[in-house]
Amino acid sequence: MRDTELYRHLLAIEAPWTVSRVELDVKGQRVDVFAEHSRPKTWPCPECDLACGLHDHDEERVWRHLDSCQFQTFLHARVPRVQCSQHGVRQVRVSWAEPRSRFTVLFERLAIDVLLETDVAGAATILRLSWDEAHHLMERAVARGLVRRPHKVPRVMGIDEKSLAKGQRYATIACDLEASHVIGVAEGRTGESLIHCLGRFSINDLSAVEAVAMDMSEPYLRRIRAIIDDADQKIVFDRFHIVAHMNDAVDKVRRRENKLLRADGDERLVGSKYMWLYGAENLPDKYEVDFAALRSSNLKTARAWAIKESLRQLWKQRSRAAGERWWHRWYGWAIRSRLEPVKKVAAMVKRHLPNVLTYFKHRITNAGSEAINSVIQMLKKRAFGYRNFENFRTTVLFHCGGLSLYPSHPKPG
Ligand SMILES: [Zn+2]
Protein backbone atom coordinates (compact mmCIF):
# COMPACT_ATOMS: atom_id res chain seq x y z
CA MET A 1 0.00 0.00 0.00
CA ARG A 2 1.30 3.44 -0.86
CA ASP A 3 1.87 5.79 2.07
CA THR A 4 -0.74 8.21 0.73
CA GLU A 5 -3.31 5.42 0.64
CA LEU A 6 -2.29 4.28 4.12
CA TYR A 7 -2.82 7.76 5.56
CA ARG A 8 -6.10 8.21 3.71
CA HIS A 9 -7.32 5.24 5.73
CA LEU A 10 -5.63 6.25 8.99
CA LEU A 11 -7.17 9.69 8.82
CA ALA A 12 -10.53 8.38 7.58
CA ILE A 13 -10.42 10.84 4.72
CA GLU A 14 -13.28 10.48 2.27
CA ALA A 15 -14.06 11.74 -1.21
CA PRO A 16 -13.76 14.35 -2.56
CA TRP A 17 -10.62 14.51 -0.39
CA THR A 18 -7.53 12.34 -0.92
CA VAL A 19 -4.03 12.33 0.49
CA SER A 20 -1.69 13.81 -2.10
CA ARG A 21 1.62 13.30 -0.31
CA VAL A 22 3.21 12.28 2.97
CA GLU A 23 6.45 13.74 4.26
CA LEU A 24 8.47 12.01 6.92
CA ASP A 25 10.96 14.05 8.95
CA VAL A 26 12.99 11.50 10.90
CA LYS A 27 15.13 14.09 12.64
CA GLY A 28 12.14 16.18 13.72
CA GLN A 29 10.18 13.00 14.55
CA ARG A 30 7.16 14.12 12.59
CA VAL A 31 4.92 13.11 9.73
CA ASP A 32 3.19 15.70 7.59
CA VAL A 33 0.22 14.56 5.57
CA PHE A 34 -1.19 16.75 2.81
CA ALA A 35 -4.83 16.42 1.75
CA GLU A 36 -6.27 17.67 -1.50
CA HIS A 37 -9.67 17.46 -3.05
CA SER A 38 -10.88 16.65 -6.52
CA ARG A 39 -13.10 19.20 -8.19
CA PRO A 40 -16.72 18.66 -7.25
CA LYS A 41 -19.14 21.08 -8.87
CA THR A 42 -20.68 22.11 -5.57
CA TRP A 43 -19.93 22.10 -1.83
CA PRO A 44 -22.50 22.21 0.96
CA CYS A 45 -22.79 25.46 2.88
CA PRO A 46 -21.66 24.75 6.47
CA GLU A 47 -24.75 26.51 7.83
CA CYS A 48 -27.62 25.33 5.66
CA ASP A 49 -26.20 22.45 3.58
CA LEU A 50 -27.32 24.19 0.40
CA ALA A 51 -25.14 23.14 -2.54
CA CYS A 52 -22.99 26.15 -3.39
CA GLY A 53 -20.34 26.95 -5.93
CA LEU A 54 -16.68 27.15 -4.96
CA HIS A 55 -15.63 30.68 -4.05
CA ASP A 56 -11.92 30.28 -3.29
CA HIS A 57 -9.55 28.51 -0.89
CA ASP A 58 -8.40 29.64 2.50
CA GLU A 59 -4.77 29.62 3.52
CA GLU A 60 -3.38 26.20 4.34
CA ARG A 61 -4.49 24.95 7.73
CA VAL A 62 -2.75 22.38 9.92
CA TRP A 63 -4.37 19.90 12.31
CA ARG A 64 -2.56 17.76 14.84
CA HIS A 65 -3.56 14.11 14.47
CA LEU A 66 -2.86 10.96 16.50
CA ASP A 67 0.84 10.15 16.47
CA SER A 68 2.19 7.65 13.95
CA CYS A 69 4.16 5.52 16.40
CA GLN A 70 6.37 8.07 18.18
CA PHE A 71 6.10 10.60 15.33
CA GLN A 72 3.84 13.58 15.80
CA THR A 73 1.51 13.69 12.85
CA PHE A 74 0.01 16.74 11.19
CA LEU A 75 -2.59 17.02 8.48
CA HIS A 76 -2.42 19.95 6.06
CA ALA A 77 -5.14 21.17 3.73
CA ARG A 78 -6.46 24.26 2.04
CA VAL A 79 -10.14 24.31 2.79
CA PRO A 80 -12.52 25.61 0.12
CA ARG A 81 -14.86 28.49 0.76
CA VAL A 82 -18.31 28.68 -0.74
CA GLN A 83 -20.52 31.61 -1.55
CA CYS A 84 -23.94 30.89 -0.09
CA SER A 85 -26.78 33.19 -1.12
CA GLN A 86 -28.00 33.16 2.51
CA HIS A 87 -24.81 32.98 4.56
CA GLY A 88 -22.23 34.65 2.38
CA VAL A 89 -18.66 33.40 2.02
CA ARG A 90 -18.04 30.45 4.37
CA GLN A 91 -15.37 27.84 4.85
CA VAL A 92 -16.84 24.37 4.21
CA ARG A 93 -16.80 21.69 6.88
CA VAL A 94 -14.14 19.03 6.79
CA SER A 95 -14.88 15.52 7.99
CA TRP A 96 -11.74 15.16 10.08
CA ALA A 97 -12.06 18.13 12.42
CA GLU A 98 -14.59 20.40 14.07
CA PRO A 99 -14.76 24.00 12.89
CA ARG A 100 -11.95 26.18 14.28
CA SER A 101 -10.15 23.25 15.91
CA ARG A 102 -6.43 22.79 15.39
CA PHE A 103 -6.77 19.06 16.13
CA THR A 104 -8.46 16.26 14.27
CA VAL A 105 -11.56 14.73 15.83
CA LEU A 106 -9.67 11.54 16.62
CA PHE A 107 -6.94 13.49 18.40
CA GLU A 108 -9.53 15.44 20.42
CA ARG A 109 -11.21 12.23 21.47
CA LEU A 110 -7.91 10.79 22.66
CA ALA A 111 -7.08 14.03 24.47
CA ILE A 112 -10.41 13.90 26.32
CA ASP A 113 -9.74 10.30 27.38
CA VAL A 114 -6.32 11.27 28.70
CA LEU A 115 -7.64 14.41 30.45
CA LEU A 116 -10.32 12.33 32.18
CA GLU A 117 -7.62 10.12 33.67
CA THR A 118 -5.17 12.76 34.86
CA ASP A 119 -4.77 16.51 35.33
CA VAL A 120 -3.98 19.06 32.66
CA ALA A 121 -0.22 19.05 33.28
CA GLY A 122 -0.09 15.25 33.10
CA ALA A 123 -2.20 15.15 29.94
CA ALA A 124 -0.02 17.84 28.35
CA THR A 125 3.08 15.72 28.94
CA ILE A 126 1.53 12.53 27.60
CA LEU A 127 0.06 14.23 24.53
CA ARG A 128 3.09 16.45 23.95
CA LEU A 129 1.05 19.63 24.12
CA SER A 130 1.56 22.84 26.04
CA TRP A 131 -0.48 23.28 29.23
CA ASP A 132 -2.58 25.92 27.46
CA GLU A 133 -3.29 23.65 24.51
CA ALA A 134 -4.36 20.78 26.77
CA HIS A 135 -6.50 23.10 28.85
CA HIS A 136 -8.04 24.54 25.71
CA LEU A 137 -9.07 21.05 24.59
CA MET A 138 -10.76 20.64 27.96
CA GLU A 139 -12.55 23.97 27.53
CA ARG A 140 -13.76 22.97 24.08
CA ALA A 141 -15.07 19.67 25.44
CA VAL A 142 -16.96 21.45 28.22
CA ALA A 143 -18.37 24.05 25.82
CA ARG A 144 -19.54 21.22 23.54
CA GLY A 145 -21.11 19.43 26.51
CA LEU A 146 -22.90 22.53 27.77
CA VAL A 147 -24.47 23.17 24.36
CA ARG A 148 -25.72 19.59 24.22
CA ARG A 149 -26.91 19.45 27.84
CA PRO A 150 -30.67 19.07 28.08
CA HIS A 151 -32.57 21.80 29.92
CA LYS A 152 -33.56 19.67 32.86
CA VAL A 153 -34.31 20.96 36.34
CA PRO A 154 -33.07 18.57 39.02
CA ARG A 155 -35.83 17.10 41.15
CA VAL A 156 -33.41 16.84 44.06
CA MET A 157 -30.71 19.48 44.30
CA GLY A 158 -27.60 19.90 46.44
CA ILE A 159 -26.03 23.29 47.18
CA ASP A 160 -22.57 23.28 48.60
CA GLU A 161 -19.84 25.76 49.35
CA LYS A 162 -16.29 24.58 48.77
CA SER A 163 -13.16 26.17 50.08
CA LEU A 164 -10.54 26.42 47.35
CA ALA A 165 -7.66 27.79 49.32
CA LYS A 166 -7.49 27.94 53.09
CA GLY A 167 -10.45 30.15 53.87
CA GLN A 168 -9.55 32.60 51.15
CA ARG A 169 -11.53 31.60 48.13
CA TYR A 170 -14.82 29.83 47.88
CA ALA A 171 -16.96 28.30 45.21
CA THR A 172 -20.65 27.55 45.21
CA ILE A 173 -21.51 24.28 43.54
CA ALA A 174 -25.02 23.13 42.65
CA CYS A 175 -25.65 19.45 41.94
CA ASP A 176 -28.36 17.24 40.62
CA LEU A 177 -28.27 14.74 43.47
CA GLU A 178 -30.16 12.03 41.60
CA ALA A 179 -27.86 12.10 38.60
CA SER A 180 -24.79 12.96 40.75
CA HIS A 181 -23.88 15.73 38.33
CA VAL A 182 -22.65 19.23 38.95
CA ILE A 183 -25.09 21.60 37.29
CA GLY A 184 -23.49 24.92 38.18
CA VAL A 185 -20.27 26.38 39.56
CA ALA A 186 -19.87 29.99 40.67
CA GLU A 187 -17.26 32.00 42.50
CA GLY A 188 -17.90 32.99 46.12
CA ARG A 189 -20.47 31.74 48.61
CA THR A 190 -23.07 34.46 48.55
CA GLY A 191 -26.66 34.54 47.44
CA GLU A 192 -25.41 35.99 44.16
CA SER A 193 -23.13 32.98 43.68
CA LEU A 194 -26.12 30.72 44.04
CA ILE A 195 -28.08 32.69 41.47
CA HIS A 196 -25.12 32.36 39.07
CA CYS A 197 -25.17 28.60 39.55
CA LEU A 198 -28.84 28.31 38.73
CA GLY A 199 -28.98 31.15 36.23
CA ARG A 200 -30.18 29.08 33.31
CA PHE A 201 -33.38 28.11 35.11
CA SER A 202 -36.41 30.35 35.39
CA ILE A 203 -38.43 30.69 38.59
CA ASN A 204 -41.03 28.62 36.81
CA ASP A 205 -38.47 25.87 36.06
CA LEU A 206 -37.34 25.85 39.66
CA SER A 207 -40.82 25.15 40.96
CA ALA A 208 -40.14 21.55 39.84
CA VAL A 209 -37.43 21.19 42.51
CA GLU A 210 -38.78 18.92 45.24
CA ALA A 211 -35.91 18.96 47.75
CA VAL A 212 -32.66 20.85 48.38
CA ALA A 213 -29.80 19.62 50.54
CA MET A 214 -27.60 22.45 51.81
CA ASP A 215 -25.56 23.85 54.67
CA MET A 216 -27.07 26.17 57.25
CA SER A 217 -25.93 29.24 55.36
CA GLU A 218 -28.02 32.39 55.66
CA PRO A 219 -27.18 33.83 52.24
CA TYR A 220 -28.11 30.59 50.44
CA LEU A 221 -31.17 30.18 52.59
CA ARG A 222 -32.52 33.63 51.76
CA ARG A 223 -32.05 33.07 48.03
CA ILE A 224 -33.54 29.60 47.98
CA ARG A 225 -36.59 30.93 49.81
CA ALA A 226 -36.85 33.69 47.23
CA ILE A 227 -36.63 31.47 44.15
CA ILE A 228 -38.24 28.17 45.14
CA ASP A 229 -41.90 27.88 46.10
CA ASP A 230 -42.59 26.33 49.45
CA ALA A 231 -38.86 26.24 50.17
CA ASP A 232 -39.27 25.55 53.87
CA GLN A 233 -40.83 22.17 53.10
CA LYS A 234 -38.02 21.37 50.68
CA ILE A 235 -34.81 22.51 52.35
CA VAL A 236 -32.86 19.84 54.23
CA PHE A 237 -29.84 20.98 56.22
CA ASP A 238 -27.23 18.50 55.31
CA ARG A 239 -26.28 16.07 58.04
CA PHE A 240 -22.63 15.94 56.98
CA HIS A 241 -22.38 19.67 57.47
CA ILE A 242 -24.01 19.45 60.87
CA VAL A 243 -21.67 16.67 61.98
CA ALA A 244 -18.76 18.72 60.60
CA HIS A 245 -19.81 21.58 62.90
CA MET A 246 -19.80 19.14 65.81
CA ASN A 247 -16.37 17.85 64.82
CA ASP A 248 -15.22 21.41 64.91
CA ALA A 249 -16.65 21.81 68.41
CA VAL A 250 -14.84 18.65 69.58
CA ASP A 251 -11.61 20.06 68.22
CA LYS A 252 -12.12 23.36 70.02
CA VAL A 253 -12.73 21.53 73.30
CA ARG A 254 -9.60 19.42 72.72
CA ARG A 255 -7.39 22.41 72.00
CA ARG A 256 -8.48 24.23 75.10
CA GLU A 257 -8.19 21.16 77.29
CA ASN A 258 -4.81 20.18 75.87
CA LYS A 259 -3.43 23.59 76.78
CA LEU A 260 -4.60 23.26 80.38
CA LEU A 261 -3.34 19.69 80.72
CA ARG A 262 0.07 20.50 79.31
CA ALA A 263 0.45 23.34 81.78
CA ASP A 264 0.20 20.58 84.41
CA GLY A 265 2.61 18.30 82.55
CA ASP A 266 -0.18 16.00 81.29
CA GLU A 267 0.53 15.05 77.68
CA ARG A 268 -2.42 12.71 77.11
CA LEU A 269 -4.04 14.81 74.38
CA VAL A 270 -0.87 15.68 72.51
CA GLY A 271 -1.02 14.33 68.96
CA SER A 272 -4.59 13.09 69.36
CA LYS A 273 -6.26 15.64 67.07
CA TYR A 274 -7.17 13.30 64.22
CA MET A 275 -8.37 10.42 66.40
CA TRP A 276 -11.33 12.50 67.55
CA LEU A 277 -12.42 13.43 64.07
CA TYR A 278 -13.20 9.92 62.87
CA GLY A 279 -16.61 8.37 63.25
CA ALA A 280 -16.18 5.52 65.77
CA GLU A 281 -16.53 2.89 63.02
CA ASN A 282 -13.88 4.48 60.80
CA LEU A 283 -11.05 4.82 63.31
CA PRO A 284 -7.84 3.43 61.78
CA ASP A 285 -6.41 0.38 63.60
CA LYS A 286 -3.21 2.16 64.57
CA TYR A 287 -5.16 4.49 66.88
CA GLU A 288 -7.35 1.83 68.43
CA VAL A 289 -5.49 1.15 71.68
CA ASP A 290 -4.63 4.77 72.49
CA PHE A 291 -8.06 5.96 71.57
CA ALA A 292 -9.89 3.36 73.65
CA ALA A 293 -8.10 4.69 76.73
CA LEU A 294 -8.80 8.32 75.83
CA ARG A 295 -12.48 7.95 75.04
CA SER A 296 -13.24 6.16 78.31
CA SER A 297 -11.33 8.74 80.33
CA ASN A 298 -13.00 11.58 82.20
CA LEU A 299 -11.58 14.16 79.78
CA LYS A 300 -13.85 16.90 78.50
CA THR A 301 -12.75 16.06 75.00
CA ALA A 302 -14.00 12.49 75.48
CA ARG A 303 -17.37 13.83 76.57
CA ALA A 304 -17.60 16.20 73.60
CA TRP A 305 -16.71 13.31 71.31
CA ALA A 306 -19.41 11.07 72.80
CA ILE A 307 -22.00 13.81 72.28
CA LYS A 308 -20.88 14.23 68.67
CA GLU A 309 -21.02 10.48 68.00
CA SER A 310 -24.41 10.32 69.56
CA LEU A 311 -25.75 13.12 67.34
CA ARG A 312 -25.04 10.95 64.31
CA GLN A 313 -27.78 8.58 65.50
CA LEU A 314 -30.37 11.27 64.84
CA TRP A 315 -30.44 10.44 61.13
CA LYS A 316 -30.90 6.75 61.84
CA GLN A 317 -34.27 7.26 63.47
CA ARG A 318 -37.22 5.66 61.71
CA SER A 319 -39.57 8.60 61.45
CA ARG A 320 -39.79 12.31 61.92
CA ALA A 321 -41.61 11.81 65.24
CA ALA A 322 -38.90 9.44 66.49
CA GLY A 323 -36.25 11.83 65.22
CA GLU A 324 -37.81 14.74 67.05
CA ARG A 325 -38.04 12.80 70.33
CA TRP A 326 -34.45 11.69 69.90
CA TRP A 327 -33.38 15.25 69.20
CA HIS A 328 -34.87 16.60 72.44
CA ARG A 329 -33.00 14.02 74.52
CA TRP A 330 -29.75 14.77 72.73
CA TYR A 331 -30.25 18.51 73.00
CA GLY A 332 -30.79 18.27 76.76
CA TRP A 333 -27.53 16.39 77.12
CA ALA A 334 -25.56 18.76 74.87
CA ILE A 335 -26.89 21.95 76.40
CA ARG A 336 -26.09 20.79 79.95
CA SER A 337 -22.62 19.57 78.96
CA ARG A 338 -20.85 22.72 80.16
CA LEU A 339 -18.81 22.52 76.95
CA GLU A 340 -19.25 25.92 75.30
CA PRO A 341 -18.42 24.93 71.69
CA VAL A 342 -20.83 21.96 71.92
CA LYS A 343 -23.59 24.12 73.37
CA LYS A 344 -23.10 26.60 70.57
CA VAL A 345 -23.59 23.98 67.86
CA ALA A 346 -26.57 22.51 69.71
CA ALA A 347 -28.20 25.95 69.83
CA MET A 348 -27.50 26.57 66.16
CA VAL A 349 -29.02 23.24 65.11
CA LYS A 350 -32.02 23.95 67.33
CA ARG A 351 -32.65 27.26 65.57
CA HIS A 352 -32.76 25.37 62.29
CA LEU A 353 -34.47 22.26 63.59
CA PRO A 354 -37.49 22.20 61.24
CA ASN A 355 -35.15 22.00 58.25
CA VAL A 356 -33.01 19.38 59.94
CA LEU A 357 -36.08 17.22 60.46
CA THR A 358 -37.18 17.60 56.82
CA TYR A 359 -34.55 14.89 56.35
CA PHE A 360 -37.15 12.34 57.37
CA LYS A 361 -39.35 13.38 54.48
CA HIS A 362 -36.70 13.61 51.74
CA ARG A 363 -33.80 11.52 53.07
CA ILE A 364 -31.14 13.34 51.05
CA THR A 365 -27.57 14.42 51.72
CA ASN A 366 -24.79 16.10 49.80
CA ALA A 367 -22.43 13.23 50.53
CA GLY A 368 -22.57 12.00 46.94
CA SER A 369 -20.15 14.71 45.93
CA GLU A 370 -17.03 12.57 46.49
CA ALA A 371 -16.10 12.96 42.83
CA ILE A 372 -16.23 16.72 43.20
CA ASN A 373 -14.11 16.63 46.33
CA SER A 374 -11.43 14.62 44.59
CA VAL A 375 -11.33 17.10 41.71
CA ILE A 376 -10.95 19.95 44.18
CA GLN A 377 -8.16 18.08 45.95
CA MET A 378 -6.43 17.58 42.61
CA LEU A 379 -6.69 21.30 41.85
CA LYS A 380 -5.52 22.29 45.32
CA LYS A 381 -2.26 20.44 44.83
CA ARG A 382 -1.35 22.72 41.98
CA ALA A 383 -1.11 26.45 42.17
CA PHE A 384 -2.38 26.94 38.62
CA GLY A 385 -5.76 25.74 39.82
CA TYR A 386 -6.29 29.16 41.31
CA ARG A 387 -4.90 31.20 38.47
CA ASN A 388 -8.39 32.02 37.46
CA PHE A 389 -11.76 30.83 38.50
CA GLU A 390 -12.83 29.84 34.99
CA ASN A 391 -10.16 27.11 35.01
CA PHE A 392 -11.64 25.72 38.18
CA ARG A 393 -15.16 25.83 36.79
CA THR A 394 -14.10 24.17 33.54
CA THR A 395 -12.28 21.39 35.37
CA VAL A 396 -15.20 20.64 37.71
CA LEU A 397 -17.69 20.57 34.83
CA PHE A 398 -15.33 18.43 32.75
CA HIS A 399 -14.96 15.77 35.44
CA CYS A 400 -18.29 16.01 37.28
CA GLY A 401 -20.76 17.71 34.94
CA GLY A 402 -22.08 14.50 33.36
CA LEU A 403 -21.55 16.22 30.01
CA SER A 404 -21.28 14.67 26.57
CA LEU A 405 -17.71 15.78 25.89
CA TYR A 406 -16.56 14.08 22.70
CA PRO A 407 -16.69 15.61 19.26
CA SER A 408 -18.91 13.58 16.94
CA HIS A 409 -17.19 10.95 14.86
CA PRO A 410 -16.03 12.12 11.48
CA LYS A 411 -18.75 11.81 8.90
CA PRO A 412 -18.16 11.78 5.17
CA GLY A 413 -17.65 15.32 3.93
ZN1 LIG B 1 -25.95 28.71 3.69
Brief synopsis:
This protein is α/β, with parallel strands linked by helices and 413 residues long. It is built from 17 helices and 11 strands. The chain is elongated.
Low-confidence stretches: none
Shape, per Cα inertia axes: elongated
User: Main sheet, how many strands, which sense, barrel?
Assistant: 6 strands, mixed
Instruction: State the share of residues found in helices, binned by percent.
Output: 40-55%
Strand content: 15-25%
Instruction: Provide a count of the helices.
Output: 17
* Helical/strand content category: alpha/beta
Q: Average pLDDT value?
A: 91
Distance between the termini: 24 Å
Q: Tell me the series of helices and strands, N- to C-terminal.
A: HEEEEEEHHHEEEHHEHHEHHHHHHHHH
Bound molecules: zinc ion
What is the rounded Rg? 29 Å
Count the strands?
11
Protein model, in words:
The protein is α/β, with parallel strands linked by helices and 413 residues long. 43% of the residues lie in helices and 21% in strands. It is built from 17 helices and 11 strands. The strands form 2 sheets. Strands 1, 2, 3, 4, 5 and 6 form a 6-stranded mixed β-sheet that branches. A 5-stranded mixed β-sheet has the order 9-8-7-10-11, sandwiched between helices. It is elongated, with a radius of gyration of 29 Å. The protein starts with a helix and ends in a 13-residue tail after the last helix. The model has no long low-confidence stretch (mean pLDDT 91). The structure holds zinc ion. The site of zinc ion (ZN) has 7 residues, from loops. Zinc ion binds next to loops.
